[in-house]
Amino acid sequence: MKIAVTYDNGNIFQHFGKTEFFKVYEVEEGKVISSEVIGSNGSGHGALAGLLAGQSVDVVICGGIGGGAQAALAEAGIELCAGAQGDADQAVEAYLKGELVSSGANCDHHGEGHSCGHHEEEHSCEGGCSGGCGGGCQAQPPLIGRNVGKICRTHYRGTFNDGAQFDSSYDRGEPLEFVCGAGQMIRGFDAAVADMEVGQVIDVHLMPEEAYGFADPAAVFTIERAQLPGAEGLEVGQQVYLSNQYGQPFPVKVTAKEGTTITFDANHEMAGKELNFRIELVEVKDK
Asked: Are strands 115-116 and 79-81 parallel, antiparallel or unpaired?
């Protein structure tokens, strides 16, 4: 197993796409047996995923990372632990102990540099639970099962506890495709598929910690409208994209407009919710 950390003089470099170095750790039986520092060769966000895949890296630990880079890592089958900071060696030890929790595509949106991005009317992860939302390491052991590491195609229907449907691949007429165990899906969905047989249909009930986690009060923030061009045209309840100081977009919902301020909630819309899935495994193939 190999773990790569964005690296700067002993610490975790805080911007994945601009890191000049990675420290790559070789791990056996839960222990670091060797490490080396490699250059990024000036690669950009997407190319870095290819660079790490070429080094047979299994896990990336970093600070800030945007959604595009996260998707590229997921496509390469590399697990992501974002939002880490401090000493690189200590972060790896924490990961190996199951104490490091990923915050996902997280670049600090509480700092300066807000700007309103494309004013999309709606943001949802395709398939209801793919695209890396809630993926990455969650301080849990690796998944075990016949389908882990393989490309799985599933049909599914997702409902809340009251029976209301929030998503369905059947309605779209196309199964959802993902690499099982690569962090592309929420943990509970991944775990359910890990040992299924082709043609099998199962029903699963996921608690928030197995799905999109619990809402984080720190992800609700208020800023002066004057700091955000286009804020006057936003309405409460509208879902839009903002960009942080690195120019990386992240989705938020407008929750309040009072006086000269506007309040946003960057929590996932499914945070804190129990979810139910009926899953049908349609096909499994090697990567």
From this structure: unpaired
